[in-house]
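Box 3.1 A note on notation
Throughout this textbook, protein chains are presented in two layers. The first layer is the amino acid sequence; the second is a token string describing backbone geometry. Keep the layers aligned when reading.
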Amino acid sequence: MNDLSIRKDRRAGRITLTRPQALNALTHEMAVAIHRALDDWRGDPDVALVIIDAEGDRAFCAGGDIAAVYHAGRAGDHAVGQDFFADEYRMNAAVADYEKPIVAFMQGFVMGGGVGVGGHAGHRVVGDTTQVAMPESGIGLIPDVGGTWLLSRAPGRIGEYLGLTGARMDAGDAIHAGFADIYLPEAEWDAAREMLADTGDVAQLKGRPAPASTLADRDLSAFGGRSVEEIVASLEQQGDEGALKPLRRNSPLSMAATLAMVRAARGDQRMQDALSREYRFTRRATAQSDFLEGVRAQIIDKDRTPVWAADAGPAAVEAMLAPLGDDELEWEDRA
């Protein structure tokens, strides 16, 4: 396919996202192809490790390509989005649980679906252009692709802050928050990939001292509030306009659900539990949330003025996260 380059290179399986003109946005077909490649290499003795990277300077992957989901949902066809999310999440879990080392080189924008591709790899390399974010509350969705799992494991209240605001992290912040592992100047990435393909030995991948994290020094105590309303009230007392601006702009239902989901994920034993909870929201999203309006405003019409209409009360959040019965996301058991 034109959107991916999947090949074997010496000791490495290589997956390169090749649609830089679209900021390497992830399509349904790309998600399926990545999962298939990982399955193919699982028992291949020639493949010692997997390298995931992307063409272009601007983005590793700026998110999921959800235009098709939007147009189908507007036409009353909710299966397009449901199938996309299910296959994408299974791919995310395959990356997280892979038996061989996966090294992701993540430059530029790494957002939403891009975090799902690279953010669960065992060795996540970031550089000076890296900008990581989970901005889904701004389009009426929730931090999915295992985002609530990562957010729940960030120090302190960083998870709530990032999930509700969609704030961007640079390399230092991403490493501090647990979204990346290795800082390496991007001028050195080609040599690192060559070394990995030659040796098949991830132990030889050495990073540099990470830049300082400004996120580590922020007072995020307000994000310990029991509800979005409490968080807003605390931020108003603190006069933190930087954090208040996105909270006033993002979908109230999305933020309320995100808050509940990040906190629930802290009790999960494996990422699949968080993905299953995320799927309960996203499976219902095109029919029962602010998602279509958020995509319209931010991606389709680009007027940046969504009119949020979904109920954001506790009962509405509970309904969006209620078990799906026979439609629950199923997982392969490799035990």
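The CA atoms of residues 131 and 142 lie 19 Å apart. The radius of gyration is 19 Å.
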